[in-house]
Each structure stands twice: as C-alpha cells, then as structure tokens.
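Technical note accompanying the year-one report. For the benefit of new consortium partners, we illustrate the data format agreed upon in the data management plan: each record pairs a sequence with a structure-token string. No post-processing was applied to the example shown here.
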Amino acid sequence: MASGTFAESGADLELVGIQKRFPGFTAIEHLDLTIPAGSFFALLGPSGCGKTTTLRLVAGLEDPTEGSILIGGKDVTKLKPFQRQVNTVFQSYALFPHMTVLENVAFGLRRRKIEDPIGKAHEALVLVELDHLATRKPQQLSGGQQQRVALARAIVNRPALLLLDEPLGALDLKLRRQMQLELKSIQEEVGLTFVHVTHDQEEAMTMADTVAVMNKGEIEQLGAPEELYELPRTAFVANFLGQSNLFTGHVSGSTSNSITVDVEGTKITIPTKRAQRHKGEVTVGVRPEKLHLHKNAPKKEAGTNSLGPGRIIDVSFSGVSTQYTIAIPGIDKVTVFQQNTTFGPLAGEGAEVWVSWDVDHGFGLEDEPGATPRFPADADTASIAVQKRRALMSELEES
C-alpha cells in the first residue's frame, strides 16, 4: 500500500493455479479460489493441510512456485508484503511491550505518515471497545483485550484484506466464543474482506459467510456453513465438520425423488437431490443429532429410516446432550446425540435399542467406496472398511 493512503473498502482476492513446493514435499497442489470483496471467508482444515501456507502466500511472506495472486484485480504475486493492501493478525499478538495501547495502534499510521494518527487510533480502539484502556501497557491487559488491540492495530490501517491466522487460539473457551461474535460484528461494520484460517469447526461456522474445507493442499468443499454441514460431499468433510454416521451399500432401487441403499439387508432411503451418486455402491450418511433413540422397535413409516436392534456400548454426558454409541450387527457402530430434556440418560450401557431418522435428513457422498482414498480413513468411517471386508469374505466363501 502506498504511503499515506487507505483502502476505501474491502477488495476481492483471487488465487489462480497456485502451487507451493518446499524441499521434499508439496504444501499446495493446485489451488484456484475467488473470495468476494467485503466477505468473511474461512479456510478450515487440520494441521498440515496448507491453510497457513495459503495465508502466507497472500501476505507475501512466501512466494508461490506457480500461479498468481490478485487483490482487487491487481496482480500482487511479485510485490513485497509492505506493498500489498494486506494486514495480518496472528495468534501471538506481537504488541510492543514498551508502548501504550494507543501508541501500539498508532504505530503503523505514523510509519506511513498518515494524518492525525492519534485520532484514528482512538477511533479504532472505540470500535473494539478499548479506548478507556488507551494509556495502559499490553502486559496490563487480559488475553482477550490484547487480541482486540492487535485487531485494532490491523484495522486502523484500513487494509483491503485482513488475514486472521488462528487469532483466537490462545483464548479460553468462553472468551473465544465471545470474540467470535465480536469479530463478525466488527467485520460487518468496517466492510473489509476478512480471510480467517482456523482448525476450529465451530469458529469457522460461527463467523464466516463462506467456508472452504481444505486438506492435502486442496479444497475439498466450499460453501456456506449450513450447506457444508447439512450436505457434505465427501467422507472427509462429513467427519471433519462435525461427526457423521456413514453406511456403505448398493443402490437397490430408485424413484424420481429418492434412492434406496441396501446396507447388509437393511434399506436406507436418501432423497435423490441430497445424494451425489445414484447407482452402484455408494456411501450415505446422517448426522448423530438427527437420530432418535427408541427402547422398542419403531413402526415402519414412509419417510423414516430405522436401524436395529443394537446394544448401547457407551454413554457420554456432555451437558447439553448425551452421546450414545450403539453396536448394531452388520452395521458396526452408530452414534446418537440426544438432547438432555429430561434428567438422566434415556438408556444405559447394555440396553437394547433402535434408532430412526427422517429420510430428508440423510445425505449421499461422492466418494467411490472401492477407490483408494486420497485422505487417511477417519475413525468414524471405519464402517466403510468393515463392509468391504465382509463383501470380500463373502466372495471367498462362495468360490
């Protein structure tokens, strides 16, 4: 950014054919991504997926091996970090300990010879509700207050793009949730483009307009938080963004509105519009909180799937809900989250139970169960391997 100038509003970010190779490994395979101006965008993924590398490339702290980076339509791939309309807030706030809060916020403005740096610094502190602590030193503040000072210091420069690298990671749970709401509110008020990197699923879904789930240097799925949660396209997304019960079987029938999957003799129906694949062997799923627990076999009704009987092998109380793990013969384990509307669990370990759910709550994945997975298997998707092993054993017995 040129000296003495501000970005009037957020700018769009475009990554075109980005690849980043380090000696011995490739961090980003091939990345194409467009982030609209003024949006709150989250890059979500596990450690080592390439999300922080992506952020460093945008900030200019790393150079791409291949590809281009455009901010507001301008190619900044070759520009130094200080030449880009970008600011970064890190998990470590990096405040100057010898300066007051006000001096910390005004520091960048003075370096760039911006008019009235103290007045603008006060405005930024008012925005994060810390102007009353302007004369204090960073060590006199709590972790949450220091985080807001770091945010004010970044916002006061009016970058077209604000990068957030796990900025809430050092805060306790209650304060982190409070700051999630405050960050979203601040982003809406200042109108800048926020790109937030995190491994915390709740954090991404709470704040972002759009979430990109990333792994192995590629984006697995991108969309609104609700869309990703309700309609995951792959087993990785289904189990990284929350938990899922996944079942594998052959499509045994279909109508214009639904497909029916045979899972070890049990029929599971999925709406056609919520399934990525409609024939052959497929993997379908349902979220644990969508399931209902029954002590007696539920009546077979149109629009409802049911499994059982099974035995409860684990009961875990978590306050708002109780988690039940149920072993069902031929199906492996099923997880149910039951909201605690009564005192005590509905059933204890060893109890015989059934589960059911509305057909409309199921989803079908685009993963090919027989293909070699690009991602390591998640513990919750072990049923896929179980089904394949049983099928192989059945073939051997027949031969």
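Partners are asked to follow this layout when depositing records. Confidence is low (pLDDT under 50) at residues 1-6, 372-388.
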